[in-house]
Amino acid sequence: MATEALQRQIQGKWQNSFARLNRDQQGITGLLGFSESWTLATDFLHPRDLNDPKANREWDMTQVRNAVETLSRSKMLPLLLENFLEEMRKQQYLITNDVNELMRQYENTEDIHHIARLIYRLLEWYRAWVPISELGHTILSAYTLTFQTHIYSTLPPSFSRGFKQLINATFDLAGTRTAPPWIPPTPAPLQSSLPIPRPDLPLWSSFEQLGMLDRYESLISSVCYEHIEAHILETCTRKWGERMLQPLREWMTNKIVPWMVMPYARGARTAEEARSMLQGVGSRFDFHVCKTLSDLRTREIFDIIIDFPDSQPALEDLKECLQRVDQRSQLVQTLRKANRKRLLHPGADTKDIIAQYVSIIRCLRLVDPPGVLLFKVADPIRRYLRERPDTIRCIVASLVGDGESGDSLVDENEPIQPLQQMQVEDYTDPSWEPEPIDAGPDFRTNKPSDVISTLVSIYDSKDLFVRELQVLLAQRLLAITDGNFDRERRNIEILKIRFGEAALQVCEVMLRDMTDSKRIDQHVQSQKNMILRPTIISRHFWPPLQAGKFTMPGQFKQIQDDYASEFHLFKPDKMLRWLPLLGTIHLEIELEDRTVPADVPPLEAAFIELFSQRDTWTVDELVASVGSVDRPAAIKALTTWVDLGVLKDEGGNRYRLLEVAEDGFSSSSGAPRPARIVEEVPAVLTVEQQQADQMKVYWKACFIEGMLTNLGMLPLDRIQTMLKFAPGYDRTVEQLGAFMEAARREGLVTASNGLWKLSKR
Amino acid sequence: MKVHVKNWHAIAQWRWDTGAADADDDGEGDVCGICRVPYEGCCPSCKMPGDDCPLIWGECSHVFHMHCLLQWIGTSSSKQQCPMDRRPWVTAERKVDRTNNAR
């Protein structure tokens, strides 16, 4: 039931459409012309099948253009486009078939050849279907979009893999001029005027036309990243002896940049243009080079440090990389982890830990001069070292240049400086700089910078070092028999610079005792020729020495007394007190069938002297005749002679002199075994022994004993509190606990429920 | 069997021969009554013990570091008396003769 108005409306529209299609021509000729044009245009635009030779027919381009012109005037182009896209959709299965076919071949053979073919095939399809440019930009871009949408939806996941392989293969083309089989020998027709530098140019153009460069951009750059990584790993791994960063950058310039021109700056006409186009992406790749190298070096850092002086170039590389890449925290983490795993465990020698620590100090100072990295890495090491009992001894031993280990911690070339104390920051200093940005709250810029100061600063006070130094020096000086202690003097002079004159005053006295002894001995020898050459020391200035009392028997006593009286004549107001356990005696035992030379400690000499009185002794008899000697020490001394084949253990604590050698020992006097009995017990008490001895004073002085007698049972902290009233008591509860534990083992006290009491005796 | 001693490197400590020294064997030894430092140590103003910081004997049988005593005698409040027994200080002859005779 159309109303009149509606009818009029329809009529008007009809008239309009007619007029538009007829284009004001007579009758319906316009309409006919339009119809013809439409058929021609749709035929022309029909997405044809490439495999069908019939579809590929020649077109009269003028006719086509006229037809398009007609359609355009009739404003029918959108309709044409819609029609065209619809046709395309119907024909898409053709492309899909091709894609599937080629991808199947690729998946079967993994040959990038098929991927390349696929690319060209797609390009062929694209070119075959592309509308002529007269249809306008809109149609072209709509076409491209539809085409790409379709191929991307068709391409299977494995295409990415193949594509990557294909890109990867293009790296190898860099230098070559001959194209590999998967690149068509004839270059694609539409080309820029640039001379073709590389054989893979057509491939890249195809990528671009198919819109693959944009879509697979990340894929392409990841291929490049992987290529760079592989190259770095291959060339730089464990190569620390030379700088790698510069060669890597050259490699980038020579190998990667020419490649980069393809995906990123193909359109560039001049080198200048190419450079500006490559700038952004180039710096991204350069960053990647730095990152990869710094990752690699970070992984290797522990071994680099072990190799240190030889691996310096690697560290310089790392330093340069770290400036570009923010990997400092990774470096710290990795190194800390490696240290924990490889260094800070009970199996590592303290000496090695310290040596590695010193290397770490040197290396990280090189990488990061302000020392933030070092501070973070060193902290666990320092805490660990503080817990080791022999840390100080090791440091001191290396300070004075341990004879055995050739490499001293102290660099010979390093100037000797006084120990540096922490300084308060001087904000008035015009060259003051704030702490680095990643410094922790504990970080101090004015850290002691030389290695020794750093090592000494592990502990809060340097007194511990000085004490240990005295012990070490005493051990060495007492072991000197040839009177040559120039090395020790030199060491002390060096250490004086470090620790200050006052701290080493005691050492100075020790050295003077040595010179005095030499002088006195010269005088005494000039008066009377003696075989005894003593070192005369000032007590109170030497660390406590192995005390022990026994009297040398026979001729030894005579020698000692002779010397003492000569000494007394020379120094009338002084007398000598012999330390019988110390020193060495060079003896020759003359037996019936042989002579045995030996270097032995005095106790051994005393025993063998006793055997010259009588052939058989028991241990107890021997001990009784020299005075008070530990039984284990006595047995050890006797064993020395048994080992030398002079005595024989007859069981039941009896020893017999072998005037004639028994079987098993070379009896012929021609080959006396030169024996050197190294004194195993150090002459000087270690610091721990000294502390234990001091603790005994507190016991002996009846502090603890009296306390427990008067008060019965006491907990440890009560004892500690009360001991604090004693003058000079400076032990911690832990030390006291250790001492009480030792006392319990000796049977002096018993403990129950944390309460200590005297054991009933 | 005979034992021939070829060479002997021994360690000894020196002590001042104060006449009474034999009694203490392993203790800290006698101390100077003025500075409370052992005789074999050195007085507070010295750094080297021994001949550089000798002892001084008094007629009253008291023994001090020489430097300590001289400093004491130098003060007016000392009235030239021994700090231990307040008798006038008279420096005794060294005990050299006595010990030599004793031996």
Automatic annotation (TrEMBL), chain A:
<dbReference type="InterPro" id="IPR057975">
    <property type="entry name" value="TPR_ANAPC2"/>
</dbReference>
<dbReference type="InterPro" id="IPR036390">
    <property type="entry name" value="WH_DNA-bd_sf"/>
</dbReference>
<dbReference type="InterPro" id="IPR016158">
    <property type="entry name" value="Cullin_homology"/>
</dbReference>
<keyword id="KW-0132">Cell division</keyword>
<keyword id="KW-0833">Ubl conjugation pathway</keyword>
<dbReference type="Pfam" id="PF25773">
    <property type="entry name" value="TPR_ANAPC2"/>
</dbReference>
<dbReference type="Pfam" id="PF08672">
    <property type="entry name" value="ANAPC2"/>
</dbReference>
<keyword id="KW-0131">Cell cycle</keyword>
<dbReference type="GO" id="GO:0051301">
    <property type="term" value="P:cell division"/>
</dbReference>
<keyword id="KW-0498">Mitosis</keyword>
<dbReference type="GO" id="GO:0070979">
    <property type="term" value="P:protein K11-linked ubiquitination"/>
</dbReference>
<dbReference type="InterPro" id="IPR036317">
    <property type="entry name" value="Cullin_homology_sf"/>
</dbReference>
<protein>
    <recommendedName>
        <fullName>Anaphase-promoting complex subunit 2</fullName>
    </recommendedName>
</protein>
<dbReference type="GO" id="GO:0006511">
    <property type="term" value="P:ubiquitin-dependent protein catabolic process"/>
</dbReference>
<dbReference type="GO" id="GO:0005680">
    <property type="term" value="C:anaphase-promoting complex"/>
</dbReference>
<comment type="similarity">
    <text>Belongs to the cullin family.</text>
</comment>
<dbReference type="InterPro" id="IPR014786">
    <property type="entry name" value="ANAPC2_C"/>
</dbReference>
<dbReference type="GO" id="GO:0031625">
    <property type="term" value="F:ubiquitin protein ligase binding"/>
</dbReference>
<dbReference type="InterPro" id="IPR036388">
    <property type="entry name" value="WH-like_DNA-bd_sf"/>
</dbReference>
<feature type="domain" description="Cullin family profile">
    <location>
        <begin position="424"/>
        <end position="627"/>
    </location>
</feature>
<dbReference type="GO" id="GO:0007091">
    <property type="term" value="P:metaphase/anaphase transition of mitotic cell cycle"/>
</dbReference>
<dbReference type="InterPro" id="IPR044554">
    <property type="entry name" value="ANAPC2"/>
</dbReference>
From TrEMBL, chain B:
<keyword id="KW-0862">Zinc</keyword>
<keyword id="KW-0863">Zinc-finger</keyword>
<dbReference type="GO" id="GO:0051301">
    <property type="term" value="P:cell division"/>
</dbReference>
<keyword id="KW-0131">Cell cycle</keyword>
<keyword id="KW-0498">Mitosis</keyword>
<keyword id="KW-0833">Ubl conjugation pathway</keyword>
<dbReference type="GO" id="GO:0008270">
    <property type="term" value="F:zinc ion binding"/>
</dbReference>
<feature type="domain" description="RING-type">
    <location>
        <begin position="43"/>
        <end position="86"/>
    </location>
</feature>
<keyword id="KW-0479">Metal-binding</keyword>
<dbReference type="Pfam" id="PF12861">
    <property type="entry name" value="zf-ANAPC11"/>
</dbReference>
<dbReference type="GO" id="GO:0031145">
    <property type="term" value="P:anaphase-promoting complex-dependent catabolic process"/>
</dbReference>
<dbReference type="GO" id="GO:0097602">
    <property type="term" value="F:cullin family protein binding"/>
</dbReference>
<dbReference type="GO" id="GO:0005680">
    <property type="term" value="C:anaphase-promoting complex"/>
</dbReference>
<dbReference type="InterPro" id="IPR051031">
    <property type="entry name" value="RING-box_E3_Ubiquitin_Ligase"/>
</dbReference>
<dbReference type="InterPro" id="IPR001841">
    <property type="entry name" value="Znf_RING"/>
</dbReference>
<dbReference type="InterPro" id="IPR013083">
    <property type="entry name" value="Znf_RING/FYVE/PHD"/>
</dbReference>
<dbReference type="InterPro" id="IPR024991">
    <property type="entry name" value="RING-H2_APC11"/>
</dbReference>
<keyword id="KW-0132">Cell division</keyword>
<dbReference type="GO" id="GO:0061630">
    <property type="term" value="F:ubiquitin protein ligase activity"/>
</dbReference>
<protein>
    <recommendedName>
        <fullName>Anaphase-promoting complex subunit 11</fullName>
    </recommendedName>
</protein>
